[in-house]
Amino acid sequence: MSKINDAGHPKNVANFENLITYLTGYGAVYNPSNVNIQLKSLNEKALAARTLLEQVNDLAAKSSSAIAARDLAFQPLKKLSTRIVNAIKASNVPQQVADNATTNNRKIQGQRASAKLTDEEKEKLAASGTIVNQVSASQQSFDSQLDNFDKQIKLLGTIPTYAPN
User: Is the pTM of this model over 0.85?
Assistant: First the structure.
């Protein structure tokens, strides 16, 4: 028995078209009473499936291009955010404002506020009865990065001494 590894929508459409070819080969012998499985209906469905598959492929190509463009647009964000923080620190602002800017930058960079516990530290805490549950703190989705950068921009609006060159 052969093993078939090919799968997915294109293979389903190809197999459906192959089935129609076999049924066409039967000629007048293949004459079902159900209108939905007559050759005319099957050919229409195969054509519709092929058309939809082409539309999906076209949209996938456009989506791939849009994703690549978004990646390119977000590339300078981390460097810009670091430059903003450095300019804020050089603007002689209160430490709390600089800390807020650093927090926004840390989130944009995808860094944790505190270091992740090692396995030994977790075992020590577990032995003392403390349950430790560390979750991801990355916040690197495009939406999160935009939100954190928006917070950084709004923070800049509150600093009258911020004047980068």
Answer: no
Give the pair of three-digit tokens for residue 148. Answer: 């954190």
pLDDT 10s digit of each residue in the chain, 165 long?
Answer: 456 667 889 999 999 999 999 999 999 999 999 999 999 999 999 999 999 999 999 999 999 999 999 999 999 999 999 999 999 988 888 999 999 999 999 999 888 777 777 778 777 877 887 777 776 667 788 899 999 999 999 999 988 888 777
Contact 152, 87 (CB under 8 A): no
How far is the C-alpha of 65 from the C-alpha of 59, rounded, in Å?
A: 10
Q: Quick check: helix, strand or coil at residue 61?
A: helix
